[in-house]
User: Fold this.
Amino acid sequence: MNAPPNRKGDANKRNAQKSTGPRTASGKVRSSQNARRHGLATPISCDPTWKETSTAIYNQIVDLFFTDEQKALCLRVAERQCEILRTRKARQAAIEQAFSKRRYTPSLVDLLGEPLCRWMANAEMARGRSAETMDHYSTPKLKSEPESNCIAVSEVIGDMNRLDRYERRAHSAMRKDLGRLKKMLFEQHSVSREANPTKGKIKL
Assistant:
């Protein structure tokens, strides 16, 4: 008997073919630089800034485990925790940088062009205005704090979404590794109880 068609699987394959990433040369160049913008794609073991922190976390939890597999999982958990901390630090830095910028409105020279602004300045001088009026047209003005903050929020939203994906991925991986460690602890305690039934139950 023929198997029923897998419509959902076929649809997923068709959609995957459409989602192949950037296709133009410029798009591929921009995409290749994404990991270098914040360094979050760098493994913790290759990041000198976080390697020491990862080792410290590993040393705090590894004493509970004995086998090489368990210790390897402990190292992965420590690295996942550092990935989460690194992402949060990058988020804080992006927010501080966005809100610390001084933003200016374009000058009238930028908007209208120098010839028109010079004509306007000469016209005002003819009316008895100061000869320094041209500076008024060429000097940009500092934006107000509420306006600057709105621009900062709009600039940082895209970065926040990207950083959230990194943090969610690290959280998901760490939960899986912690689940495996918990299972190993339970199995290890079960074997110990069979060998020595007088011991109490383990609390996980």
Observations:
- The chain has nine helices and two strands.
